[in-house]
Structure to design on (112 residues):
């Protein structure tokens, strides 16, 4: 098993856990782009959003709900952004589906 995030999820590589349940694991991004930068990843390995199938609909919804709950508990009441990068042009660098939760500062739009 060579996937970095699978190794993080199973604890073989250390990370700073933020939240976890039977479906997902949320942890601090090692190279944060905002004061709050948390990654929410499914325990199930999916290469990217494009690999998700109809059977993953509940899981995808759960990831979004989890990001919103983490934002609420972190007090990001001024706002935040949830991002999924896909593929080369989308800037994906780790091939295990994950949501970025970014907050704690005003975020520019459009992204670069
Ligand atoms: P992406 O570019 O959308 O695939 O996002 C991958 C994210 O994973 C980047 O923001 C990296 O900073 C982050 N990252 C890479 N390695 C680690 C790690 N060992 N622990 C936590 N975050 C990581
Ligand atoms: Zn994986």
């Amino acid at each position: 098993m060579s996937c970095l995030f699978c190794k993080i999820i199973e604890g073989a590589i250390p990370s700073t856990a933020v939240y976890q349940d039977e479906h997902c694991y949320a942890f601090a991004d090692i190279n944060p782009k905002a004061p709050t930068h948390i990654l929410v990843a499914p325990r199930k390995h999916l290469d990217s959003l494009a690999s998700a199938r109809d059977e993953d609909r509940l899981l995808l919804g759960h990831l979004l709900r989890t990001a919103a709950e983490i934002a609420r508990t972190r007090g990001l009441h001024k706002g935040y952004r949830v991002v999924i990068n896909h593929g080369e042009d989308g800037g994906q660098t780790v091939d295990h589906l994950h949501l970025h939760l970014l907050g704690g500062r005003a975020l520019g739009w459009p992204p670069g």
Q: What stands out?
A: Residues 57-73 form the longest helix (17 residues).
